[in-house]
Amino acid sequence: MSTKQKNGWLLPGFLLVYGALNVLFGALQLDTIFQGPPATPDEFTSMHYFEMPIPIVLHIVAGIFLNLVSPFQFALATWRRWPALHRWSGRLVIVSGFLVGLTGLWMNQFYPLFGGLLKYTGVMAHSIGLMAALGIALWAILGRDVPRHRVWMTRAIAIGLGPATQRLFILPVFFIFGSVSELAVGLVVWWGILLNLAVVEWFGRRSRSGQMKTALKGV
User: Are 62 and 92 in contact (CB under 8 A)?
Assistant: First the structure.
């Protein structure tokens, strides 16, 4: 494998490792749900998960697919060598992303509120933002607008990885203090979304700036 090919797998590899935090946490939640209600409920396990398990199970399973498949959308090899694989995996990303968003909205509305208004609005922003970005990306590729498709697909995956960023901040606090306040939960939900999008926009501007400089040199 050439250096250029190796560099082409750096971003997918990073996203796969980063999303593994969501996958691991989701797998642990599924195991807890399948085992039945714990003797002592905690901040991360609502009793409603056991009373109405279908929404949370669908949410977790769809999220696992989203986190495992979406990184490969950035692998240049899948675009060039296996375009059909890229298209079908993209369809899986869109379906799983919409399922994550819809179940997230449902649980946000009907499960007991924890985290206050900040968390409630943050989950709404996460769910609606994910589905909106995926919808725009789909519309763009149907119109053969590849650059716009890539931009919005990148934003969608950044939003989809928001829970991983949330957990990077909230889990150390929980392990150190043994509990997490509702205010902290609400703030971290928003922080996970905004930080990921800020990083994506920053890299996007750098990339566009680099492309413009290259084009000007050729004039």
Answer: no
